[in-house]
Specification:
This protein is α+β, with helices and mostly antiparallel strands and 470 residues long. It has eleven helices and six strands. Helix 3 crosses helix 5 and helix 10 packs antiparallel against helix 11.
Length: 470
């Protein structure tokens, strides 16, 4: 039993020698064991250097945005995206083209005036007799209009008008998608900017700890492994910083592609999306969104097309007036002939084998369009509810992370104090506390921006980002 006591005594003695620099610092003692003279001389310098590792963490992950900052906010980002985007310009031109098609269909049911002219002759021989016609010139002026066609022309007009309205709504939807893309990119850029800032602070803090350890290792080679571990931590932090910088640059490139070179203030953009609206107004706005209205008009257009196809089997009544005048020369023909004709024309389809299948197919497409509208409405309601729940969860997660972050700040401060001055913690404890703290800061920033992006998506699914909260 004496051997264990001797071993225990040796360990206690070694422990006292290892702890002596800290006790000398705390008690102000000038007594220093000879074997630890150099280490004690290095400890005050290391402690002072470590104390200069000032905690530069901001009080909050995202401070309140400055309204006077030189950068685009939410409304300005939306306007810049709409002014810079070519896709929505193409959608606008297509909508104008469909509107002109509707005008063409409308004009088809109005008066139709036509002018015809002919110059020439005819040479023929019948049974040895010359029946050639002398050369002549003629002109014909005709005026016509459909009196009744079973509603086909009106159905075609309604079909075109509904398609024009659907195309206009498709243009509005394209504008909204472009605006949402710009806002999401602006928030992603802010996300990576915050990550870059946090990881930059992490790198500087770990580098400061490495410098403090270097002073200790210079006189105490037994702690070289701690220095290697600290340098490894710095390298890992630098990798995270480089990844955040690269992601930030890539997002900025995509953002400039959407809105141009104007600077964007991500905090101003996020500030306009901090409030999560209630669910009932969001659902009401989503049901009146341009996408669903577009599907509604497309379903109506399909129904009118089915009516137009069905009307092709009905009789058609039209009337026309035509005036003609011809003048001939040579061959002894009449020099001048004038005529006037007026009448009513009735056209009755008697047999068309493909008419019935065409009408059935048109009615089936109309029913399918109506079913698609119902499915899209249900899907949109479910998506709004899901995104609203996700936004609430993200906001709650950000708040909980804020509370954990405050505890983490106290823990890292206490851990570093115990490591620097009391020797009760190892470097691994310090590095673990630092890594956890900065990871929590990144997680809180991600939760805040996730919530803002979800609010932007909810607003886009309803009234739109350009109209403010519903």
């Amino acid at each position: 039993m004496a051997r264990p006591r001797a071993c225990s005594s040796r360990w206690r003695a070694a422990g006292l020698l290892a702890w002596w620099p800290a006790w000398a610092l705390l008690l102000g003692s000038g007594v220093t064991p000879p074997a630890q003279a150099q280490s004690v001389a290095a400890v005050p310098a290391a402690t002072q250097r470590a104390a200069r590792c000032i905690d530069e963490d901001p009080p909050t992950v995202q401070p309140a945005a400055d309204p006077t900052a030189a950068g685009l906010g939410l409304a300005a980002v939306v306007q810049a995206a709409l002014a810079h985007g070519r896709s929505q310009s193409a959608a606008r031109l297509l909508a104008e083209a469909v509107a002109l098609d509707a005008e063409q269909t409308r004009a088809a049911s109005q008066w139709q005036l036509a002018l015809g002219a002919r110059v020439g002759g005819e040479a023929a021989r019948l049974g040895g007799t010359d029946t050639s016609q002398p050369a002549q010139a003629s002109a014909t002026l005709s005026l016509s209009r459909v009196l009744w066609d079973g509603g086909r022309q009106q159905s075609l007009l309604d079909w075109r008008l509904q398609l024009a309205q659907a195309s206009r709504l498709a243009w509005l939807s394209q504008r909204e998608q472009l605006a949402l893309s710009a806002v999401m990119l602006a928030l992603d850029a802010e996300r990576h900017r915050v990550q870059e800032e946090v990881y930059g602070q992490y790198v500087r803090r770990m580098a400061c700890l490495v410098d403090a350890l270097a002073d200790v290792v210079a006189v105490d080679r037994g702690r070289a492994s701690e220095l290697l571990q600290a340098r490894k931590g710095v390298q890992q932090a630098e990798l995270s910083l480089a990844a955040a910088r690269s992601a930030h640059r890539q997002t900025e490139i995509r953002l400039r592609r959407v809105i141009g070179d104007a600077p964007v203030d991500g905090q101003l953009v996020g500030q306009a999306l901090q409030t999560l609206p209630d669910l009932p107004p969001l659902l009401a706005a989503a049901e009146a969104a341009p996408e669903l209205a577009q599907l509604e008009h497309q379903a109506r257009a399909a129904a009118h097309w089915a009516q137009a196809v069905g009307a092709e089997s009905r009789p058609q009544l039209s009337w026309s007036v035509a005036a003609a005048r011809s003048a001939g020369w040579g061959g002894g023909g009449p020099p001048h002939v004038a005529s006037l004709a007026a009448g009513i024309q009735l056209s009755v389809p008697l047999f068309s084998p493909g008419q019935a299948p065409a009408a059935d197919a048109a009615r089936a497409r109309a029913l399918a369009a109506r079913e698609q509208l119902g499915d899209a409405t249900d899907s949109r309601r479910a998506r709004v509810r899901e995104l609203h729940e996700q936004a609430q969860a993200a906001r709650d997660r950000a708040q909980r992370l804020g509370a954990v972050l405050r505890d983490s700040q106290q823990l890292r401060s206490a851990t570093q104090l115990q490591w620097q001055q009391l020797g009760r913690r190892s470097l691994f404890d310090v590095m673990g506390a630092e890594s956890e703290h900065y990871s929590l800061r990144v997680a809180q920033a991600n939760a805040i921006i996730d919530a803002q992006q979800l609010v932007a998506t909810l607003q886009s699914l309803g009234a739109g980002l350009g109209s403010g909260p519903p």
